[in-house]
Every structure is written in structure tokens, then in C-alpha cells.
Amino acid sequence: xxxxxxNDVDADSLGYTPKKKRPPSAFSLFIQxxxxxxxLKLEAERSGKSVSQTEVMKECGxxxxxEKAEEEESKLDDIVGDIGKMSINEA
Length: 91
Known about the structure:
Blueprint: H1 26-45, H2 53-90
Helix pairs in contact: 1-2
């Protein structure tokens, strides 16, 4: 019997604490949402040729990086805009 396996009825007696399930990360949720669309897009670009999961994940990673950069840029624009409003209002 392997500690932590589904058939392990004596987990408590062995001092094993089951691992708590963590919520999915933002990247994992992004992959779930976009991977099928990315696969279709890549297949269309390659005239219907099949696309490997590795290629889909690389493209998803590239898109995730772009999305995160846009979010950061947007946050900075908001902060700069707020600072500009404060100095205008204080004058």
C-alpha cells in the first residue's frame, strides 16, 4: 500500500496527511479557456495540418505573456492618470 493512494485506508495510522487541493492558477484557467481556440487558429494557419500539444502550449504561453504585459501597462496608465488628476485638482 502506498501512503496517500486512494486505496490507503490506513493513512491516518501512518501519519500521512492528504495534500489539500489548491484552486487552479490564473494561467491554468487561461489555458482551459483558450487552448482549443489556439489549436484551431494554428491548424488554420498551417492549412489544416495537425498541431502538437507542445505547439499549442507555446502559443498559449506567448499569449499569456502578452496579456499580462497589457494588464501591467493598463495598471500603470491608471496610476499615472490618477496622479495627474491629483496634481490638477490640488492646483
